[in-house]
Amino acid sequence: xxxxxxxxxxxxxxxxxxxxxxxxxxxxxxxxxxxxxxxxxxxxxxxxxxxxxxxxxxxxxxxxxxxxxxxxxxxxxxxxxxxxxxxxxxxxxxxxxxxxxxxxxxxxxxxxxxxxxxxxxxxxxxxxxxxxxxxxxxxxxxxxxxxxxxxxxxxxxxxxxxxxxxxxxxxxxxxxxxxxxxxxxxxxxxxxxxxxxxxxxxxxxxxxxxxxxxxxxxxxxxxxxxxxxxxxxxxxxxxxxxxxxxxxxxxxxxxxxxxxxxxxxxxxxxxxxxxxxxxxxxxxxxxxxxxxxxxxxxxx
Length: 300
Fold this sequence. Notes:
By secondary structure, the protein is α+β, with helices and mostly antiparallel strands. The chain contains six helices and 16 strands.
């Protein structure tokens, strides 16, 4: 099995730094990853010679990091479920998740998750990795789920998420038609008292900001595009409910299932700067049949 490895040439500004400083501060390799490299079968080289993290670098040095091979958890059982792959390279995989499928297995549903389907795909393709989900969607939300094929890629994309450099848009169908054709909802979100699942707007909650734009009006419901500046649990569902326009099918937050049997929410686009290929990646996932049907019926 070939180990994952990366090689960089040390620039003038990094000359004099210890290898540890260079890897932590410039390549954003975590301290835990460095520990694993030392103790779990990885290796560090400068100019093809093995070194420790205390090695002093100079301009022009060639630094190579070999990451230890990843072990798949015994609790994660691969399952042969077809995937709708919408983007793939040697570092990342993006899948259009259908509704009714959990992103990861739970004690209640342990045989039909997207993660298990991806793991089966990895094994069929000879990809030696465990599951690194960069984002997750609720079971009944459809759309883009992005996976990193190694934990270094996962770490770098997590940094992009935290800094707001990963852009996502959602399409939703909501009850009624918002008076404003576009706007911003900025309301803190926290856990609802007495519930381990439900969230609500509350003063002591976490800061949350959602931008919305009404794309089409169908009388009883509307098609809305949403962009998140933060990523709180159930953020879109809570915020849309807070302005009196809960999502169709979302009975947890005030919607009903007359039109659709799940919350009408779809993660449609994802955009990020690829940390290895160094260009912009733009991914789009087609809207699933149940939402498309409602849009078509509304337009008649």
